[in-house]
TrEMBL record, chain A:
Keyword Cell membrane: yes
Descriptive protein name: ABC transporter permease
Subcellular locations according to the entry: Cell membrane
Main localization (coarse): membrane
Transmembrane segments: 20-40, 52-70, 77-96, 102-123, 128-146, 166-187, 216-237, 249-266, 273-292, 298-315
Automatic annotation (TrEMBL), chain B:
Record's compositionally biased regions (Low complexity): 1-12, 29-44
PANTHER family, per the entry: ABC TRANSPORTER PERMEASE PROTEIN YPHD-RELATED-RELATED, INNER MEMBRANE ABC TRANSPORTER PERMEASE PROTEIN YJFF
Protein's cellular compartments: Cell membrane
Protein known as: ABC transporter permease
Transmembrane segments: 61-78, 90-109, 139-159, 165-185, 206-227, 258-280, 292-321
Entry annotated with the keyword Transmembrane: yes
Region Disordered, annotated ranges: 1-46
Major subcellular location class: membrane
Membrane topology: Multi-pass membrane protein
Keywords assigned by UniProt, alphabetized: Cell membrane, Membrane, Transmembrane, Transmembrane helix
Pfam family, one: BPD_transp_2
InterPro entries from the UniProt entry: ABC_transp_permease (IPR001851)
Length: 321, 367
């Protein structure tokens, strides 16, 4: 958080990078929109904007949880696998009704988050490693549950969740907006939010100040797990099938990038929710731009890699290691 | 990542500044290569010290003990396990992962991590298949050059720009996979290899063991010697142990970091080339999740993820343990192949938890 760096940087450069960090994501989203409106065919239509927002919804929901975790100077690599678990569990419990199916998925996300949190907070394992184990194990478990198969969903209520509308706005977008608002309130208006930021800023000082550091950390990983599970449910509903092999693949990378691009430093101590939402939009727009201009998947991956590096490079100024 | 917080500096640690601990790691001193810690001097008989010694012994030799145990049990209970054929198979399967994990060992000892090795490994194989069209030399040079360059860029981004290793290497995981897809028409084209002298690198045997096994043995021997007997090796330990001190001592920390990431890329590319020679083609779908296998093997072998300590021999034991277990799973049969990744994840978790609990039993490792 400190602006004191050992490198002698000129004031100008510092100011530029600080501006980029704070407003770069909004500028980038605006620039991509302008580019697409000018050069991409059929971009400027209500239907297309709706599609973009719907597709950004799962990334946004996962990124919200990731923003909280990164705010505590942690990281959660298991989010993609939690989405896969949702994709495996929803079809399995759909026989009992839509609500039990969604609950089952959310409970699985909660359990994974709890495990992550306990490993990080109570046992003291680095977040990368603790969540890496679940990144691999979680998807394996999802594939075992679903016997490695894609399961079609026929339940009309579940399908409505993915394609229905409320007052002309897709349900997925409404859910993402409500969750964004809740997380924004959680960070800005509650004791929990303040403690979370304090822990990310200086964990030792927080401990010495008597904050329940471990409980807050577990809470943060649980929220992240549940949000990832919710995103998995939405993605499954949207797809109309439970696909544990592909749902949420590389989502951890998109979510981390969305958070970092949005101005939340990896060194913790600061959470920017609005930036994260725009970060998620940016990731989606970037992908859409590449696809709509007929660039193959391979190029899309390489461009994404470059954007990630650029984002952490810009974010590094504020004490990121 | 886990930089030491200011408050845990030596000043607040009542343990530091006392006499050298009897259980000092053999690796963090200037002593060349003792395999066992020096006989405890001073208050050696106190139960606390004995407990610490036990913990450090378990951490360093636990993997070897587990390997022997698993080997013994499988040998007795599974009829086909002990056959020469099966043993040869395990050695061959382990050789590719061992070469990758060797590079990972160096990276992790400096306190970093390399998540790109799986993609780089696959890319190395595909490039070798391309290069093999113009002879064995190109089949080796092309993957080594490209994969080494990716590792070099990783190292520069981590060391020069100070970006977090896991983000940088996660990005290059994407990049390498993208590059692989780009040169194979989005993964739809698998190039077969016909150059016989290149194929023999992966398929021939010497003294009953496949050539990849010999490559792995030689590389691990060299790696172990470099780590233990050279100035570079000591700098690697110093960088991971206390980066600030290493910097202040005038060690070339940046160069060391760049070198280990470049080395990791080179070795992953070489393992990919050997795999291509073994499989007779550049298979595009291999290598997913290999980074986790390599990290798990390194950690199981007693290398600390926080950096500053570790051995090549431990990594080799970790690789063997992993492949023996997966061999046993295959032999039992009837198990969903997806259980492999569940077990890998659970095993990694178990190991880091045990390692963490053990290192808490040794005050000098407390952050």
């Amino acid at each position: 958080m400190t602006d004191l760096t050992l490198r002698g940087r000129s004031l100008d450069k510092g100011a530029v990078s600080r501006w980029l960090q704070d407003y770069g994501v909004f500028a980038a989203v605006a620039a991509l929109l302008v580019f697409n409106i000018l050069f991409t065919d059929n971009f400027l239509s209500a239907a297309n904007f709706r599609t973009q927002l719907v597709q950004a919804a799962p990334i946004c929901i996962v990124a919200l949880g990731m923003a909280l975790v990164i705010g505590t100077e942690g990281v959660d690599l298991s989010v993609g696998s939690v989405m896969a678990l949702s994709a495996a569990l929803v079809p399995l419990y759909l026989g009992y009704g839509v609500v039990p199916a969604i609950l089952a998925a959310l409970v699985a996300g909660l359990a994974v988050g709890l495990l992550n949190g306990v490993l990080v907070a109570y046992i003291g394992i680095q977040p990368i490693v603790a969540t890496l184990a679940l990144l691999v194990g979680g998807r394996g478990l999802a594939l075992v549950i679903a016997h490695g198969q894609l399961v079609d969903i026929r339940d009309p209520d579940m399908l409505t969740l993915g394609s229905g509308e409320i007052l002309g706005i897709p349900i997925m977008v409404v859910v993402a907006a409500v969750l964004s608002l809740l997380i924004w309130l959680l960070v800005g208006r509650t004791t929990f939010g303040r403690r979370l930021v304090a822990i990310g800023d200086n964990r030792t000082a927080s401990t010495l100040a008597g904050l329940p550091v471990r409980r807050v950390l577990v809470g943060v990983y649980v929220i992240c797990g549940v949000l990832a599970a919710a995103a998995g449910v939405l993605a499954t509903a949207r797809l109309g099938a439970g696909d544990p092999a592909n749902t949420g693949l590389l989502m951890e990378l998109s979510a981390i990038t969305a958070v970092v691009v949005g101005g939340t430093p990896l060194s913790g101590g600061k959470v920017r929710i609005l930036g994260t939402i725009f970060g998620a939009l940016l990731m989606q727009l970037l992908r859409a731009t590449l696809i709509k201009n007929d660039l193959p998947d391979s190029t899309a991956q390489m461009v994404q890699a470059a954007v990630i590096i650029l984002a952490v490079y810009v974010a590094r100024e504020r004490g990121t290691r | 990542m886990s930089a030491p917080t200011p408050a845990s500096s030596p000043a607040t640690d009542p343990e530091s500044g006392s006499t050298p601990r009897p259980d000092a790691d053999p690796v963090d001193g200037a002593t060349p290569a003792p395999t066992e810690p020096a006989e405890p001097t001073g208050p050696a008989s106190s139960p606390q010290v004995r407990q610490q010694l036990f913990a450090s012994l378990l951490q360093r030799q636990g993997a070897a003990a587990a390997l022997i145990l698993v080997l013994a049990i499988s040998w007795v209970t599974l009829p086909r396990f002990g056959s020469t054929e099966n043993m040869r198979d395990i050695a061959l399967q382990s050789s590719f992962l061992a070469i990758i994990a060797l590079g990972m060992t160096f990276v992790i000892i400096t306190g970093g991590i390399d998540l790109s090795v799986g993609s780089v490994y696959a890319l190395g194989g595909v490039l070798a298949a391309y290069g093999a069209q113009s002879g064995v030399l190109m089949a080796l040079l092309l993957p080594l050059a490209v994969c080494g360059a990716i590792g070099l860029v990783n190292g520069l981004l981590v060391a020069r720009l100070g970006l977090p290793p896991f983000i940088v290497t996660l990005a290059s995981l994407l990049f390498a996979r993208g590059l692989l897809l780009a040169i194979t028409s989005e993964g739809s084209k698998t190039r077969t290899i016909s150059d016989s002298s290149f194929l023999s690198l992966g398929r021939d045997s010497f003294l009953g063991l496949g050539l990849p096994v010999w490559f792995a043995i030689v590389l691990c021997l060299i790696g172990g010697l470099v780590l233990r007997r050279t100035r570079f090796g000591e700098s690697v330990f110093a960088t991971g142990g206390a980066e600030q001190s290493a910097l202040l001592m005038g060690l070339p920390v940046v160069r060391v970091k760049v070198t280990v990431y470049a080395l990791s890329g080179l070795l992953a590319g070489f393992a990919g080339a050997l795999t291509a020679a073994y499989l007779q083609s550049g298979v595009t779908v291999i290598g997913v999740g290999v980074e986790l296998d390599a990290i798990a093997a390194v950690v199981i072998g007693g290398t600390l993820l926080s950096g500053g300590a570790g051995t090549v021999l431990g990594t080799v034991v970790g690789v063997l343990l992993r492949n023996v277990i997966s061999n046993v799973i295959n032999q039992i049969g009837g198990l969903d192949s997806n259980y492999q990744s569940v077990i890998s994840g659970a095993f990694l978790l178990l190991v880091v938890v045990v390692q963490r609990l053990l290192s808490q039993a040794r005050p000098r490792r407390r952050r």
